[in-house]
């Protein structure tokens, strides 16, 4: 599941004093205030059902726009502001619909760029690729990665369906082609590989050999 990692800067982009970094509790409180303002401004654009029209254009043609709260990511202009050279694979530990709801909750303080559904491989985009999603729990990794969540639980391999593998691999391959990311395990990584994380996803039941073959069109 995506986990928060806020930038080491103030909201206006100026450098912040690392010793004054907010606690998780204060971060969540701040998110509530920011999120309330964002919700008021975006009320007409919030996702209320699959296939609903949106003012935003998805980055991946097969995705449906399901915007995360603006309190759960950092607006940016990647790859101009930061290079994009990683894809991070997550497992939600939630249902698909509940994951979308969490990402739209300003108190959650985390979101990924994409969420892939187990049953049919449907993909929702929650954060634009040029923005920095708070998904890896490591600011450096967040700035240069695209985060993809997969519906399910790490100890329930039945959630990792053929439809999910194929849809996710096609998405990852397109992202790699777009940003010139090598299609290997040094650049397509699990959340557990992010320095400082305490997460284990996608877990031992994720078939990395199968997934990487699909990403590479083998």
How do the SSEs run, as a string of H and E? Answer: HEEEHEEEHEHEH
Low-pLDDT runs of 5+ residues are 9-55
Contiguous helical run count: 5
Q: Biggest sheet, open or closed, and with what strands and sense?
A: 6 strands, mixed
Rg from C-alpha positions?
A: 16 Å
- Report the portion of residues in β strands: 5-15%
The overall pLDDT, averaged over residues, is 82
Q: In which range does the helix fraction lie?
A: 25-40%
The CATH superfamily is known as Peptidoglycan recognition protein-like
Q: What's the number of domains?
A: 1
Proper CATH architecture: 3-Layer(aba) Sandwich
Number of strands: 8
Q: Give the termini separation.
A: 28 Å
CATH topology value: Lysozyme-like
Classify the secondary structure makeup into a structural class. Answer: alpha/beta
- The dominant shape is globular
Give the class-level CATH name. Alpha Beta
**Strands side by side in the biggest sheet:** 1-5-4-7-3-8
Give an overview of the whole structure.
The two termini are 28 Å apart. The protein has a single domain (18-215), classed as Lysozyme-like (3-Layer(aba) Sandwich), CATH 3.40.80.10. It has 218 residues and is an alpha/beta fold. The strands form two sheets. Strands 1-5-4-7-3-8 form a six-stranded mixed sheet, sandwiched between helices. It has a two-stranded antiparallel ribbon with strand order 2-6. The radius of gyration is 16 Å and the shape is globular. The protein contains five helices and eight strands; from the N terminus they run αβββαβββαβαβα. The protein has helices at 24-42, 96-103, 139-143, 162-179, 208-215, and strands spanning 63-65, 73-74, 86-91, 114-116, 123-125, 132-133, 145-150, 188-190. Residues 15-24 have a biased composition (Low complexity). Its EC number is 3.5.1.28. Keywords: Cell wall biogenesis/degradation, Hydrolase. Residues 1-24 are annotated as: Disordered. This is N-acetylmuramoyl-L-alanine amidase.
